[in-house]
Amino acid sequence: MRKAESSMDVIKVDKLVKKFGDFTANDHLSFQVKKGEIFGFLGANGAGKTTAIKILCGLSAPTEGRVEVAGFDVEHQTEKVKKSIGYMSQKFSLYEDLTVFENIRLFGAIYGLSAGLIRERSERMLKNLGLYEQRNRLIGNLSLGWKQKLAFSVAILHRPQIVFLDEPTSGVDPVTRRQFWELIYQAAAEGITVFITTHYLDEAEYCDRVTIMADGKIEALETPRKLKKQFDCETMNEVFLKLTRPH
Amino acid sequence: MVSVTNLTKTYGSVNALNGVNVQVKESELFGVIGPDGAGKSTLFRIILSLLLPDSGEVEVWGFDPVKDYRKIRQMVGYMPGKFSLYEDLSVEENLGFFATVFGTTIKENYHLIKDIYQQIEPFKTRPAGKLSGGMKQKLALSCALIHKPKLLVLDEPTTGVDAVSRSEFWEMLQKLKKQGITILVSTPYMDEASLCDRVALIQKGKILDVAAPSEVVAGFDGKLFGVSGGNMYHLINACKSFEGVESVFPFGEELHLTFKDRDDHSEALMEFLRGKGFDKLNIRLIRPNIEDRFMSLMSSESFHE
Fold it and tell me: Which residue range or ranges hold the ABC transporter domain (chain A) (predicted)?
């Protein structure tokens, strides 16, 4: 039973340590993320989130410990890890001076999809988003909300097992933010694991489970409902402040 | 003390501000709440005399930002959205520079910034560019306050800042307000509205509502339901396919749902969803929050993309 469960874990982190000189950015992190789970990764600035994400994406090697992503060791099978994941950040998502369709073709080709597959998937994706008529418009002329929704769809175009989202919804209007979350739910329902960081704690409530990091360590890892109960708080924001505020 | 009437500003074919009316009272903490591109920065920059309006009237303590811009610039402190201090000057040099430009000294108004500046004073010889995000913010606020402005204008001070620093920042604003400074602050984060005395909700250059946060929420018309149970994605689609449903939005652990006549049809919806195989359902009447109200105002103005 236990074995069957653990084989469903698409991210396995075991006693991960990352040091930069004397500074310990990640101090013995251990956690697992299940297939199709929406996993929130929270923490104050400087808590060690970015360091951990870079290791999970195969961009930085752990000092100690073992990290497996999509069944591959991040240290020794880096290229296989990169092919199994998608990534979207708030800061950089798509090329502003390329059209919608050109961006899709570019990212599809980078991930090694055939021209036929790119055409087929992009048509379905753009129709699903309601952007098909806009496919020849420059990205720079789209609203922020459209850019974010499109960037997410492009990040999962190659059907990765896991998609990493780094503060994906900053600054968009509340309706667009909900549409974005519907896309996330859809991807999760299709079996894609969603690993998301955000500073906005109301977004933590959308996740299946959340971890809260402080000073390089994981301070809590649970469903939002249980965390709120455990710390006797109304909102995830209060839980976060209780755990991370210097006393 | 700040009065904006029928203010319009266009950039080419884009209507950045479309007939905006706002009044800010003396010693008020006034929030301008809206997403990116709503017109928040444009509104602030016109009030600050940094941008010319196309039409409409603006008065800041009786002064006109176009004609009396010199007077206004002495009266206001501005913290722009982007960090805009001198990165290669030290903390102390930046503060000294701003004090000198406004013809004052750090000593003269130290009492105003003491609480904030003390937190970064141990690093006063460090170049501003080498500070952490939270410290940069405290320095920028100190520099905006050092000439004792009547009006403090803060453009998205909490964007991209972690929850701990954000909560400290709002506490600092409450203290400044007690010292009689009028504060105009913008944020894309609706949950920060409740920390203001009054707020203006803005979207696509139009003001949707101006009121105290509790009044904004109270303006929500009809009944709102929280629905949960089962897979979120399938639940959203199932709720949307129910005839009487007007809107369904994910809100964390629950969906927020309204019916077309804004009445209670939760029994019928429950029945319908059970028929679709959802068996662990929970539907309850809930109190709307500021985002529910904002979205409801957006849909009535048909702002959807």
Answer: 11-240
Which among B159, B231, B298 has CB closest to A171? Answer: B159
Which residue ranges make up each domain of chain B? 2-213, 224-287
Query: Which residues of chain B have a CB within 8 Å of the CB of A206?
Result: 250, 252-253
In chain A, which residues have their Cβ closer than 8 Å to the Cβ of B232?
A: 185, 189
Mean pLDDT value across residues B66-74:
95
Count of structural domains, chain A: 1
Question: Which residue carries 């950089």 as its tokens?
Answer: A92
Sign of CA dihedral B248, B249, B255, B261: negative
CB neighbour burial string for B45-55, b if at least 16 within 10 angstroms, e if fewer: bbbbbbeebee
Mutation to test the A interface, candidates B186, B216, B232, most A Cβ within 10 Å: B232
Percent over 90 (pLDDT), chain A: 73
Structural contact between residues A178 and B249, judged by C-beta atoms closer than 8 angstroms:
yes
The mean predicted confidence, pLDDT, of chain A is: 91
Residues A65-108: tens digit of each pLDDT: 999 999 999 999 999 999 999 999 877 679 999 999 999 999 99
Minimum Cα–Cα distance from B299: chain A residue: A175
What is the model's pLDDT at position A247?
Answer: 53
Which value does ipTM take for this structure? Answer: 0.84
Domain that holds residue A35: 2-244
Q: In chain B, which residues have their Cβ closer than 8 Å to the Cβ of A201?
A: 163
User: In this structure, which topology does domain B224-287 adopt according to CATH?
Assistant: Alpha-Beta Plaits (3.30.70)
Residue with tokens 């929030």: B31
**Domain made up of B2-213: CATH architecture:** 3-Layer(aba) Sandwich (3.40)
Digit-coded pLDDT (tens) for B246-255: 999 999 889 9
